[in-house]
């Protein structure tokens, strides 16, 4: 995996701070931080603000470590996909060995420091999440099965459970539902992207569902997983961590998401190509806000309970 060609970057190039930040996948990290913060804030008991800040900091570092390890291992396929070719490792701005070293170092630091800042259970859950994403998903599932996104989605679903565990030292039905919300959201989110990225996954040899089963099957799967996702958000709103804001947001978001999935299911490739995948792109863009709105609503309800006596 270290034999990666350097794309149009001089060997004398010195990586910048921005290159190393990009190595940690800051966009993914932002979602990890937000959902982990939600899990931490809605958990019963609460943490001292400084403990809470350090917990989120080390969860974020763990997410960054996963991103660095993913970029190190996937540099070969990243180099041939338009969406990922400009990442630090395939573009040659960061050496593969550097990415590996940073990923391993941040993994150890984040897990040990989270254990010291909160508890061993939360740290163990973070360690398992890093291992799951870097090894189970990146090194095995992604290149082996079209269910890579389904099973691998668990890695992105753990952060709110880790935030909850940092406060409570365990898991509960509420944290399990937060996990399930992200887990069920991940397949339609990524499959919508795969529909309009067209040949990227074919070129890279990644067995995405669009490659192995075709686009009509992918459209059916998007609808099926969206139907399964909708009740999870409503159920979460009806638990003690939910409330009126979460319930309203869950009903509205999932109604729109279901409509988008039905629209995608009804379309064929000729219609999609005619309007440059307008419906699929709109569904994907909305999915980016879906989780932020859900978890934001949870935090608003938590604030209302604390400050307003609801």
From TrEMBL:
GO terms for cellular component: plasma membrane. Its EC number is 2.5.1.141. Pfam families: UbiA. The keyword Cell membrane applies. The chain crosses the membrane at residues 28-47, 53-73, 94-114, 120-141, 173-196, 244-262, 283-304. GO terms for molecular function: protoheme IX farnesyltransferase activity. It is found in: Cell membrane. Its main location: membrane. Pathway: Porphyrin-containing compound metabolism; heme O biosynthesis; heme O from protoheme: step 1/1. The lineage of its organism: Bacteria, Pseudomonadati, Pseudomonadota, Alphaproteobacteria, Rhodobacterales. It is an enzyme of class 2 (transferase). Belongs to the UbiA prenyltransferase family. Protoheme IX farnesyltransferase subfamily. Carbon 2 of the heme B porphyrin ring is defined according to the Fischer nomenclature. The gene is ctaB. One of its GO terms (biological process) is heme O biosynthetic process. It catalyses: heme b + (2E,6E)-farnesyl diphosphate + H2O = Fe(II)-heme o + diphosphate. It is a multi-pass membrane protein. This is Protoheme IX farnesyltransferase. Interacts with CtaA. It comes from the Bacteria. Converts heme B (protoheme IX) to heme O by substitution of the vinyl group on carbon 2 of heme B porphyrin ring with a hydroxyethyl farnesyl side group. Keywords: Cell membrane, Heme biosynthesis, Membrane, Transferase, Transmembrane, Transmembrane helix.
